[in-house]
Write a structure and sequence with these properties.
Largest sheet: 7 strands, parallel
Number of helices: 12
Number of strands: 7
Low-confidence stretches: 268-273, 278-283
Oligomer: single chain
Structural class: alpha/beta
């Protein structure tokens, strides 16, 4: 039986830990089991229990205080993650091997871990070797995405993670519950964006012709290939949370190995009548 994992990514402050806490509550309501693994060596506290915590292996503070290393916060975090990548046996021991495991990996927010460092890709490859079906969940703060250029920046960050990890990815706008009614209406155009009209609306703000051409090329790439779309995430909206979870389940084929219960045989006469009505309706139309 396969095992399942969500790699929860996104910039610092995008709501990754809040997302994990919300999903735990949602899974419990559905009577589904889920566990969380903290992979942020600089994390301070959680609103949920974790089955494994990278700080038990290595912490950023310890690395920064080491006189021989002399790393700052970012360098210390990179060192911690590279150390983690060299010690996946620790993670394997923490995870054990239970069929139908469903794990949320709460990851650090530094974008360089997904753009030009191999650490997160190595994690994905290792999880797949352990028979996990892995989905990336990339979060951006909806309060940040209410302007066109900031939206394009968020799209490029999400796209860089997709290209680097090469796994199914669901992109989510978080903190929708914190937006005003006016901001919610404004942000609807970014959930299913028309990149060409967005580019035309902001063409006057770019004075450099080089930046205009670059922005046009990026917008065309995103629009022509429909490479990045965002889903809204309101932690107070149970129906919306369920829709997000259904998309994730579909991307990792969750539940396809479960036994299908046979439905009761319908009444034969009623069944024929329904088909007759169906075909008659199609002929009439």
């Amino acid at each position: 039986m396969p095992r399942y994992a969500q790699i929860v990514m996104g910039p610092a402050g995008s709501g990754k830990s809040t997302y994990c806490a919300t999903m735990i509550e949602h899974f419990e309501a559905l009577n589904r089991s889920v566990q969380v693994v903290n992979l942020d060596p600089a994390a301070e506290h959680f609103d949920y229990p974790v089955m494994a915590d990278i700080r038990e292996l290595i912490q950023v503070d310890d690395v920064m205080e080491d006189g021989s290393l002399r790393f700052g916060p970012n360098g210390g975090l990179v060192f911690c993650m590279e150390y983690f990548a060299n010690n996946f046996d620790w993670l394997e021991e923490c995870l054990g091997h239970v069929e139908d495991d469903y794990i949320l990996f709460d990851c650090p927010g530094q974008i360089e871990l997904y753009t030009h460092l191999p650490v997160m890709r190595q994690l994905v490859d290792q999880l797949q070797q352990w028979e996990f079906r892995v989905c990336g969940v990339f979060l951006v703060d909806s309060q940040f995405m209410v302007e066109s250029f900031k939206f394009v920046s968020g799209v490029m960050a999400a796209l860089s993670a997709m290209v680097s990890l090469e796994i199914p990815q669901i992109n989510i706008m978080t903190k929708m519950d914190l937006l005003s009614a006016k901001a919610k209406k404004e942000i609807e155009k970014y959930l299913d964006p028309d990149m060409y009209s967005m580019m035309e609306d902001n063409s006057g703000t770019l004075r450099s012709k080089k930046f205009q051409k670059l922005t046009k090329a990026i917008c065309e790439l995103i629009d022509d290939y429909s490479m990045v779309r965002f889903m809204p995430f309101d932690r107070t909206d149970e129906e919306g949370i369920n829709i997000v979870q259904q998309h994730i389940d579909f991307s990792i084929q969750y539940g396809e190995d479960l036994e299908v219960k046979e439905s009761k045989e319908p009444d034969e006469e009623a069944d024929n009548t329904n088909y007759d009505d169906f075909f008659q309706g199609n002929v009439d139309s």
